[in-house]
Amino acid sequence: MKKTVLIFGDSNTWGWKPSNDMIKPLERWDDDVRWPGVLQAGLGDGYKVIADGLNGRTTVWNDPIEEYRCGKDQIIPTMDAQAPFDMIIIFVGTNDLKVRYTVSPQDIANGVGILVDKALHQVGDYTGEPKVLLVGPPPLGPIADGVFKYMFAGNEEKSKDVAQFYKGVAEAYGVEFFDAGTVVKSSDEDGLHLQADQHELLGKAMVKEVKRIIG
């Protein structure tokens, strides 16, 4: 039987291209370019990777402009819809850095902690008690000249502190942790999303993590 990995992510899981200008229709990297596709290829036929990536997804915040993006409201329905699985990767938090939320790195980590808590309380419904891997998002790149310069203005420094608080959340809940910022960096083009080569690096790094955690 195949081992199943569920990814609960945002636009970097969806595959947003840094070249998107928010005017023309959005483009996304091809399936085999996106890091979940790289992960699937690296794991091979004995695994199934399910990628649930939603642009703008937050940890716990309701977006008054882009509605239906609150991860707290979505993680349980997503888990129920995709069950059973052996592992869930939670990779959100970058969108919490939008200036409209005005939250600290610690608050972002507290938000993702709620997602971890919900996942852990839901796993009892699934055979095998799936493992939880919390992924700290990479810091923002330069945004001053990009399309997100107003949406994320002034939060580059704040973004550098998010992963350390995520690590603390993972330790507190006894789940696995991986800091994506140790292997990839956000694009210089829009300061937020991953270029194709970074998707490849992240996907290959996650192959090692998945095999380490669930074999």
Describe it for me?
This is Lysophospholipase L1. Pfam families: Lipase_GDSL_2. InterPro entries: SGNH_hydro (IPR013830), SGNH_hydro_sf (IPR036514). Residues 7-200 form the SGNH hydrolase-type esterase domain. The chain is α/β, with parallel strands linked by helices. It has a single domain (3-214), classed as Rossmann fold. Helix content is 36%, strand content 13%. The chain has a 5-stranded parallel sheet with strand order 2-1-3-4-5, sandwiched between helices. The chain starts with a strand and ends with a helix. The model has no long low-confidence stretch (mean pLDDT 96).
Short description:
With 215 residues, the chain is α/β, with parallel strands linked by helices. Helices cover 36% and strands 13% of the residues. The protein has one domain: SGNH hydrolase (Rossmann fold, 3-Layer(aba) Sandwich), CATH 3.40.50.
The stretches of 5 or more residues where confidence is low (pLDDT under 50) are: none
- From the N-terminal CA to the C-terminal CA, the straight-line distance is 13 Å
CATH superfamily: SGNH hydrolase
Shape: globular
Give, in spatial order, the strands making up the sheet with the most strands: 2-1-3-4-5
Percentage beta strand: 5-15%
By CATH, the topology is Rossmann fold
Averaged pLDDT, please? 96
Question: N-to-C SSE series?
Answer: EHHEHEHEHHEH
Helicity range: 25-40%
Instruction: Tell me the name of the CATH class.
Output: Alpha Beta
Largest sheet: 5 strands, parallel
| Total count of helical runs of at least 4 residues | 7
Structure class: alpha/beta
What's the number of extended β-strand segments? Answer: 5
Rg: 16 Å
How many individual domains? 1
